[in-house]
């Protein structure tokens, strides 16, 4: 449901929020709800502005009961450094709001509960989003970092494992806390949600990977140059295996050797990518060199 538009970005609310709105009005927590929504919206706008700065257009922001999602024309950034910046500005906006509130409060010396609520909510959202769990900001930052070392696919696989373990940990911790104070039980729901979301990242690896490769070409054409990563691989390795070792911000060259260590030839990333499309993953590196030599 569309609420309004700001800087050309549609602000929508998810329908699951409607019953929560009604309950909060009934229990007279309406202002608290408005504050939470506003904080989440500013957090998402911060991501959106950072994306726009890097030329990724943000189409809409949808607000959910426990957070928001900024939908961009492309769903993530290819360059790990840019992805880290885009991710980090969200929680940073919470820390800035928190500091401003503390400063203003210390000058005006108002003892308003809503100000404490504002500070507490910013602290919670700012810290929670920095958990290294996908798809939270902290998870994206860590994935971008690992991506720059071992490639996107491996980084995502590692992050899925970390995210599942941490969300299980969060689940059991919230049960443990919930036994004493039942408010903590709502954390169980969030933990389950995060576990499911982390598992879903597996499905997107396939097409996000192709997307990465296409975006890399664009990045190379825009910039005109790119850092190189050199790999050495055995002739018996299939091209799709090497393909998944590629980092998204580097251009790769592969030296192909036989088991005795003799160099059979060199392949560029573009040659591997073309072969991947043309021969549908079936070739080994040794076979590809033979095909190209013909
Ligand atoms: Zn965020």
TrEMBL record:
Name of the molecule in the record: Stage IV sporulation protein FB
This protein's UniProt keywords: CBS domain, Hydrolase, Membrane, Metal-binding, Metalloprotease, Protease, Transmembrane, Transmembrane helix, Zinc
> What broad taxonomic lineage does this protein's source fall under?
Bacteria, Bacillati, Bacillota, Clostridia, Peptostreptococcales
**Pfam families referenced in this protein's UniProt entry, alphabetically:** Peptidase_M50 (PF02163)
Q: Which GO terms describe its molecular function?
A: metal ion binding; metallopeptidase activity
Its localization reads:
Membrane
Record's bilayer topology term: Multi-pass membrane protein
* One GO term (biological process): proteolysis
Q: Boundaries of each CBS domain copy?
A: 226-283
